[in-house]
User: Fold these one by one.
Assistant:
Number 1:
Amino acid sequence: MRTYVPTPEWIVLDWHHACIAAELLCIQRCTGCGRWRHPPRRFCPACQSDQAAFEPVTGSGSVLSFAVSHRSLDPGWQAHAPYATLLVELDEGPRLLAATTTPPGEIRIGQRLAVRTEALSENFVLVWADPASHDEPTSMAPRARGNPHD
Amino acid sequence: MGTDLWGTTAIVGVGETDYVRGSDRHVCDLILDAAMEAITDAGLKPADINGIIPPPGYMSTEEIAAHLGVPDVAYHVSVLMGGASPTASLQTAAMAIAGGLADNVLVCMGWNGYSALRPKPDARPTKRVMNLGPMGETVRNHYAPYGLMSAAQHYSLYLRRYVETFGIPEDAAAAVAIACRNHAQLNSKALMRGAPLSRADYDAAPFIAEPLRKFDCCVETDCATAVVVTSLERARDLVHPAVVYLGGAEGHPEPADEIANRANLLELGIHRAAPRAFARAGVSPHDIDVLEIYDCFTYVVLLQLEALGYAEPGGAPAFVANGNIELGGRFPLNTHGGLLSQGHCWGLNHVVEATRQLRGTADAQVTDAELALVTGYGDLGDGSVAILGRDR
């Protein structure tokens, strides 16, 4: 099943490389004022510094919103329709999209999430998020419901 | 500059092709047909045109000028705001005219919105594509890998939030879809003329990307449209009653190049454009007689009505209820059928319809229409507004 995996460039590629090297979700942080930001930007919107580093985050966040797709132009995703895509607000502040193994009907705005990454190539990590659980705080298995990249 | 700009230019020519699914014509032929029709409608010749705003992609100014026989292009610019481009182009055309850079400006749009993905077996092939602008990078890098390829999917990220925050009922979205479809029954060129939509049809249709059902989504179409803008002074010597460009504006959310990190997911470009446009035109929302609102998706219409001041946040459902937006209601909306039911020409078809309404020549004519408002929306939430009025 063909599923789209991009080949990022420039500072987006730097972000993916940082996540792959750390085997954790990393987010860009301003060296000047400490502000977290995403997606990667050249200058800090708060202090205009161009000094920044990709640092690991706690991997905790919550559902700000989510899309439930009943159709997809991508055959790999279409095979799993309907599927949810989460808009995650990390506890550090920045927001990003995440794939999820959780069925759409079990997702609620405000739900607490644990985030992890999966390297799909040497240049791209996919972010996964599923409801936080006391039993399994870090290792959510993305294949519980089917991974479009399988 | 402000006092020399607003109300000093006018739309004097309009052109549009048929709105079809599966055209036998090359996309360039569609664009050039609409452009030549607009120039002819104005009573002008190609040699009178000296400013061109081309579509976002497909054809360059240079090609358009050469094929039409425009000998001397004094000004051109490309406006890349997705579906907000054509309506935003009007302010750029007006600036060029008021500033003395051009006399008669051609704004054109056209595409093979249906056939690009589904060419007829005998169709003449094309490699020409739209210019996605900043949206392309974000979708490629950040959305598509998560299974979000289409506009319906991207916008559902904040439409879900809109629906849940305010408890927006499906009744409201259905009212928009059905009003547009009803108006399309009266429009001679509407793709969906002859295909009325009932509430039962709406309810029975499957979801595409929640909360968007099939009939919440506009129709992919092969089509082209064009308008000619000139000074109000020149316009008064031409064939049609001048349709005055009273005021307009563009606006962009922050950040504009992606959705997720906006402080308020529901604050779009039009929230910034709308107050600027009303102030420039010197009118208020309740002065308007006809609304031509960019309707890629029904819920996006609701959000824009709130941004324009027709309802408080979350209040659009009451505004679109009880026939208020139908022909004969207080605020007839998308009297040509809109992108939802006439066809998707990036909203330049809304400008064409507003012009006809103010000339008094629309297929679904609003009695004594004097002021029309057009919006554009696209490129992950950019917005544009144009307020047009009959010459008095």
Number 2:
Amino acid sequence: MERRVVITAASAITPIGHGKKQITENLLAGKSGIIPLREDALVNRFIHSRVYGTIDYPIEYDFKRSHRKTMGPVAYYACQAAKEVLEESGLPQDFITSGKLGVSFSSIHGSPTVQRDIYRIFFHAKDKAEYQNIGAVEYLKSMVHTTAVNITKMFGITGRVISSATACTTGSQAIGFGYETIKYGLQEAMLCGAADEYDTTTVAVFDNLLACSTAFNNEPHRTPRPFDKLRDGLVVGEGSGALMLEDYEFAKKRGARILGEVIGFACNNNGGDLILPNLAGITQTLKLGAENAKINPQDVDLISAHATATKMGDIIEAQAIGAVFGDNPYVIGLKSYIGHTMAACGAIETIMTLYMMEDGFIAPTINLEEIDERCAMIKHVQKVLSQPVKTAAIQNFAFGGVNTILLIRKLA
Amino acid sequence: MTRQEIEREIKNIFQREFEIENPGFDDDLREKYEFDSIDAIELLLEIERMLGSELTQEEKKQAMDIRTINQICDYIERIIQTRSKAA
């Protein structure tokens, strides 16, 4: 039996704010969270792109030492968002620890800050005392599933753990796999999401691929520019997003507030090049998503596009959307506000879409001043629309040729 | 080092490194303060600093069943005695 899956809580830490109120206000105000790249005394003096989607406001954490000791910066972001989601969900403590709640959470590669510290010791240790600083704690902070298991430890969650790390589709897979876990009856609820911390090595990788924005280094808020004629690449960002997914009947029975329903998920691979966007692969993902959700593509009102603002990526995505969904749905690129938050992007963009769905508006793609004619076959949004959204799709694509689409719907 | 000095230093370490204020000498550290295997490894590094010498792998393994401050102090006393005899 397939069960319906609903979202009962959501929270995000993003370059444009923490929590629904700040994020919604800044979406409505068209505020960018892109600021100059920080000095790191490492490689950033070589990086051409000087911009970053940064969390530059304080976050008050009250984690005790027994939890802090295994947490790098990425786990702080993840655990804080998870804590807020658990509180908002109203799930009772005995359920949280019952084994009926699982966690589907990850990051692109654990904590790069801690990994750098490990390698500093690895390459420069002068004596045994320094060598001994590579301990279990450093591994627990830096391993790829550090976010998921620090969440399970902090809240005593004993159900399944899924920690799929697939670069930019990490967050959307976390939600998609959590959705499938409940849909097929393996868990009653799943705490899903993803996080990534400030990291210049990620910028360096994209910078060396000539995929980063460099033309707006002196005006960070003007980039990235999804679908715009002047777009010149992505801007790396940081952040975290967490959602509580539950079996619909279970949520209804306990009187939970339902933010939306996950109605479909699809994931595939391009089966070839690990970097270049692939029209056939992406088009197939979108078709599979509509099939999985058992909807007519024309039923989709809003698409949160992956839209990283790279030259080719945006064109391919626009073509795929046009081919599958036509020009009916509004299409927005939320990375224009926050940059590319890597693992977290699928989770954060799903949460932002939920917020818009809940409040009945569509935030525009900021910096979209002149639409690239090669991306013009879809319905772009250039100003705030007061517009109810019933069905929305969230698209994400990753290095490795991994493509995902999530479909969510507002309950009547 | 006298027993009193060892006890004082261990309590300092617990406050400074583990944020555990004035634990009872016979408190079960795992039960009461969530002191786990990760903390135990960290404590051994602190004990090495305190003694000014490395613990052998065998000595470290002997510490893995320790549960209380009193047992930690006994362990350190034993090591000091063994080493002074060997010297």
